[in-house]
Amino acid sequence: DGGITQSPKYLFRKEGQNVTLSCEQNLNHDAMYWYRQDPGQGLRLIYYSQIVNDFQKGDIAEGYSVSREKKESFPLTVTSAQKNPTAFYLCASSRASKVYGYTFGSGTRLTVV
Amino acid sequence: GDSVTQMEGPVTLSEEAFLTINCTYTATGYPSLFWYVQYPGEGLQLLLKATKADDKGSNKGFEATYRKETTSFHLEKGSVQVSDSAVYFCALSDRGDGNNRLAFGKGNQVVVIP
């Protein structure tokens, strides 16, 4: 079955460390996205990529980095520069057309200890 | 820019009650409209969608009608169950440059009491 997989589901990080969240899709979707969700908050866009080897900053890109070397993969690195990284991170993918919406992964909960 | 507004605050109701969650939007073109549902600890799932004015999206007993004249896409269900307890997000996609970015509302927590 086609889908989008995020791993790990839970992640703990010490302060000052970088950590990378994985996102893989086998839907043959061109575009991929990373969102951050805080308790009681909506979704905030971190980065997005419409094609391989290209990506754009979203609304809250500071302290994060991404790469898009393969169509199927869009990993997110949370760097030590991110002041408040504890959150629920969601990855999504979509076709180019606006009529299809997004397919989301099941999320990664990151906690800084 | 494009935006979506959902009614403030959580919604608490009894089983078999009627549910309405309001959603209004602002867009410069002709958006596609979506409702997503998020169960605790999970990602978002597409619940229903409508791509042009007067379309009605429906799924699992939920319905929403794309009203261009009132720029609205309210979600309704006639008889809710405890299993409908979740967070519901309204979203739109309307990027004339072909970039399929969605604008999301803040979401509404729905709690159904037995």
Write the layout of secondary structure elements.
The complex is a heterodimer of chains A (about 110) and B (about 110).
Chain A: E1 4-7, E2 10-13, E3 19-25, E4 31-37, E5 43-51, E6 54-57, E7 64-66, E8 76-78, E9 87-94, E10 103-104, E11 108-112
Parallel strand pairs in A: 2-11
Antiparallel strand pairs in A: 1-3, 3-8, 4-5, 4-9, 5-6, 7-8, 9-10, 9-11
Chain B: E1 3-6, E2 11-14, E3 19-21, E4 23-26, E5 32-38, E6 44-50, E7 56-59, E8 62-65, E9 75-77, E10 86-93, E11 102-104, E12 108-113
Parallel strand pairs in B: 2-12
Antiparallel strand pairs in B: 1-4, 3-9, 5-6, 5-10, 7-8, 8-9, 10-11, 10-12
Query: What percent of the residues of chain A sit in helical stretches (DSSP H or I)?
Result: under 10%
**Main beta sheet of chain B, described?**
6 strands, mixed
Strand content of chain A: over 45%
How would you describe the shape of chain B?
Answer: globular
Secondary-structure element series of chain B: EEEEEEEEEEEE
As an assembly, this protein is: heterodimer
What is the helix tally of chain A?
0
Mean pLDDT of chain A: 93
Structural class per helix/strand content of chain A? mainly beta
What report would you give on this structure?
The complex is a heterodimer of chains A (113) and B (114). With 113 residues, chain A is mainly β. Chain A has no helices and 11 strands. In chain A, the strands form 2 sheets. In chain A, strands 2, 4, 5, 6, 9, 10 and 11 form a 7-stranded mixed β-sheet that branches. A 4-stranded antiparallel β-sheet of chain A has the order 1-3-8-7, with no helix packed on it. Chain B is mostly beta strands and 114 residues long. Helices cover 0% and strands 50% of the residues of chain B. In chain B, strands 2, 5, 6, 10, 11 and 12 form a 6-stranded mixed β-sheet that branches. Chain B is globular. The model of chain B has no long low-confidence stretch (mean pLDDT 92). Classes of the chains: A mainly beta (113), B mainly beta (114).
